[in-house]
Amino acid sequence: MIPFLDLKAQYASLKPEVDASVIKVLESGQYVLGEEVAQFEREFADYCDAAHAIAVNSGTSALHLALLAAGVGPGDEVITTPFTFVATVSAICSAGAKPVFVDIDPQTFMLDPAKLEQAITPRTKAILPVHLYGQMADMDPILEIADHYHLMVIEDACQAHGAEYKGQRAGSMGVSGCFSFYPGKNLGAYGEGGIVVTNDDAQMKKIRMLRDWGQEQRYHHTIKGFNYRMDGIQGAILRIKLRHLEQWNEARRANARRYTSLLAGMAGIETPVEVSNRRHVYHIFALRCGDRDGLLRALQAEDVQTGLHYPIPVHLQRAHEDLGYRIGDFPEAEAAAKSVLSLPMFPELTSRQVEMVAAAVRQDEHVH
Ligand SMILES: *Cc1c(COP(=O)(O)O)cnc(C)c1O
Fold this sequence. Notes:
3-stranded antiparallel sheet, 7-stranded mixed sheet, Aspartate Aminotransferase, domain 2, globular, alpha/beta, Aspartate Aminotransferase, domain 1, about 375 residues, 11 helices, 2 domains
């Protein structure tokens, strides 16, 4: 069997360091926030070329607080993509605002800047582009339009730790950028975690307060806040794992290059496009397939695990039917949901495994 993801292989490679760091936190008594989390914040801000980072307890919390700190609230609209993980949209709703969708560019599967302007209304407050699969959205036109209409741009970088756009790191281009450390992400905790990075001092101060019950000083609650703090143990683990992130991202990129060359020229299959001037970090390696469900069954028969990211676009999810969207509203997102298939992708995947997966995909071509 070839797994979609192998988190245990990565732990095995780090066990002595990680175990020691966890014990250190247990002995320190700093179980929530504390020195390890503070150090991790500095190191992750540096990694993103950003001035500040505020660690929280999930990527969803990071998005929620970034939106609130940007002043998003009831009566506001936030423009985003319908082809994302549902958390992007849930965070907008949690902030009390209304999500407004824009269809995707079929080549990159991300928010199409050419369709952005027509979605702007007097109520639009922010744009929330998602750096899907590990590649950054087309930030230049998005930032230009945002600037023209005085809108905030918040990056959903939950899949894009270390991705770049014209040499700029994910998270550093908008007013803030949000990351998830869910275990399967390129940088994953051993539990839940997230972070907001920003170059803006006021955003940083507000997000720091919001994550810890709105207090500037103990029991002095200046604003209404939340308990969104990061655990000390996760901070310590993430510090160790951050030192390996570049090497892991490079291993993902090497696996992606191998898949791309092994699958080149196959009828009915399009491999992911790395747009020039962008560094894709391949959180997900998603094919576009003519007969997606046929290929899915063929790979299942060969014991190759696959994923679907995502089978239903958010505008067609029952949870968000109150937004009033229907089938046909975003044809590119709907077509993508029917045609994408994600192949196994993680740093420890061996070249032999990549070859076996590619051979299984190629074999399916001969059947059809
Ligand atoms: C993972 C993810 C999130 C949510 O992060 P959690 O840590 O699971 O809350 C948000 N947006 C995108 C695009 C994601 O992939």
